Amino acid sequence: MFKKMQNIDTAFRYVRSFTLVVVTGSLALCGFTLYKSYQWVAGAQSKVFVLANGKVLEAYAADRKDNLPVEARDHVKTFHQYFFSLDPDEKVIQTNINKALYLADASAKRVYDNLKEKGFYAEIISGNISQHITIDSVWLDMNQYPYAFRCYATQSITRTTSQVFRSLLTAGYLRNVSRSDNNPHGFLIQRWTILENQDLKSQSR
Question: Where are the membrane-spanning stretches (predicted)?
Answer without folding.
Answer: 12-35
